[in-house]
Known about the structure:
Layout: H1 2-23, E1 24-27, E2 37-41, H2 48-55, E3 60-65, H3 72-80, E4 84-86, H4 91-103, E5 107-110, H5 124-132, E6 136-141, H6 144-148, E7 157-161, H7 173-187
Parallel strand pairs: 1-7, 2-5, 2-6, 3-4, 3-5
Antiparallel strand pairs: 6-7
Helix pairs in contact: 4-5
Amino acid sequence: MSNLRSYCRLTKSFLSPFLRALFLNIEGMGNLPGEGMVIIAKHQSFLDAPILACALPRPPRFTSAEFLFSHPIYSLGLKWVGSIPVGGNSSTSGLIKIVKALKNGEIVAIFPQGGINRKRFYRGAFFAAEKAKVPVIPVVVENPEENCNKRIRVSKIKVKFYQPLYPPSFRDKELMKSFEKEVIQKLKIEME
Length: 192
């Protein structure tokens, strides 16, 4: 699989500059540190992951639901791009893999809702960032499907990277709630 991942990264390094110039309007690239980071974004479309992959300066590792790895076709694609299984029986092992990737300086992209347009928020991204001592970067991808569904002219999709945020200790519940609320507001996630 490492050869396939290398091929994927090589392909991305050639295609991304063209795709960025043609289809993306990126703000806040200066907010991205050079080392490991957790990218956290609202999951609103199947286009979110490819858009983020093109917008980021280095190939990210995405987290994906564990059950997707049992599907023969999805599993191959997810392994090909280096996705990390999370949830279900993979909660602990997934978290360990995420923290290891972050400590190795990788970018890990997480959609904290656990699926497209869900009205909940999982805190695993904060826990991983705290353990690895790396920042969380909230990212907003504005209406990806709406922009791509225009028949005559495709407008650029706006991707905004916010300032890096360092999560507080999970021991301080009030500070963690405040931190979570700030991130949810930036990502514009509607909660139940």
